[in-house]
Specification:
This protein is α/β, with parallel strands linked by helices. Helices cover 55% and strands 16% of the residues. The chain starts with a strand and ends in an 11-residue tail after the last helix.
């Protein structure tokens, strides 16, 4: 007896075979031994049909129908999130937001994925938030699928996605918009960094050494080779970028000062070499920078005392 059928339009046989296997594995978890539950598929030129069947007679099949519907809804929700979400995002990026260049589309898709799934290095609270968001989205899909299966045993997956999940697709649209904003900001940042790298490249060094000392948080000082505070006003400031004067912050001030004084070598004394501003300075000044893990300057300004053979500029 047929319990449920799921129709999917315009898919190849590999797709429906894989989905059928996923459903079959999910049904096994129900441990309905006497139900004889199976998942079979038919593939046609225009569509494919996945059918969940039981060897029970109709009067007995009602006893397992609810369990089977819940199981089928669960695996279809997982399938939508894993297999169809990326296609939805690509469709939004290309057709709605009009990005067509392959590299741009792939980059934005990457931001979408990060937004939904996070990255391994992020903090525990954000991981928890992302996990709860995924659980919530899956629960929304599962309940909507279950409602559809309770209304009718025949489900068109394409129709379901088009007409029954407006709130879900709107959330994906918002994620895509956020991803595009991140993509554009990153592109502008990289263009800005490239411009700064160019300024550094065409400038001759004005002083031999600068010591950038990160005392913690947003507290930095810059010393010359005699360990005296550097006053950027003493130098020709024509290379300062006007863009740095717009919405200026402490990072802009540090970069602007270093570009103005144009050191041949920058020693960076910090306990946090992965801090964004540190990474930015290393990216701009490239081989002019050296990160110091311990030296006499660190001991004086950072309060560190280590007896080990380390770089001591």
């Amino acid at each position: 007896m047929e319990l449920f059928s799921v129709t999917v339009m315009q898919v190849d046989e590999t797709y429906i075979r894989s989905l059928s296997a996923q459903v079959a594995d999910e049904l096994k978890l129900l441990h309905i031994v006497d139900g004889g539950l199976t998942a079979v598929y038919d593939h046609f030129e225009t569509h494919a049909c996945l059918t969940v069947q039981t060897t029970l007679l109709e009067k007995d099949a009602l006893s397992i129908r609810n369990q089977t519907a819940e199981s089928l809804a669960h695996i279809l929700a997982e399938h939508i999130m894993e297999e169809i979400e990326p296609l939805i995002f690509r469709n939004l990026i290309i057709k709605e937001f009009k990005y067509e260049a392959k590299d741009d589309v792939e980059a934005i898709e990457g931001y979408c994925k990060l937004s939904l799934n996070g990255i391994p290095s992020i903090d525990d609270s954000l991981i928890s938030s992302i996990d709860s968001g995924r659980v919530r989205r899956k629960e929304v899909l599962t309940q909507l699928l279950l409602q559809s299966l309770e209304e009718t045993p025949t489900l068109s997956l394409d129709g379901f996605l088009r007409f029954r999940v407006g709130e879900y697709t709107e959330e994906l649209r918002e994620v895509a918009e956020y991803a595009i904003d991140e993509f554009m900001m990153d592109r502008q940042y990289q263009e800005f960094i490239s411009l700064l790298q160019y300024f550094v490249y065409i400038q001759e060094a004005k002083i031999p050494v600068a010591h950038l000392i990160h005392k913690g948080g947003h507290e930095f000082i810059i010393l010359n080779d005699r360990h005296e505070l550097i006053d950027a006003d003493e130098f020709d400031a024509t290379c300062k970028l006007e863009v740095l004067e717009k919405d200026i912050n402490f990072e802009d001030m540090i970069v602007s000062t270093l570009i103005s004084v144009s050191p041949a070598t920058i020693y960076i004394h910090t306990r946090d070499p992965e801090m964004t501003i540190i990474k930015t300075i290393r990216q701009i000044f490239e081989d002019r920078t050296t990160v110091c893990s311990y030296c006499r300057t660190c001991e004086i300004y950072l309060g560190e005392s280590k007896k080990q053979d380390q770089l001591s500029p």
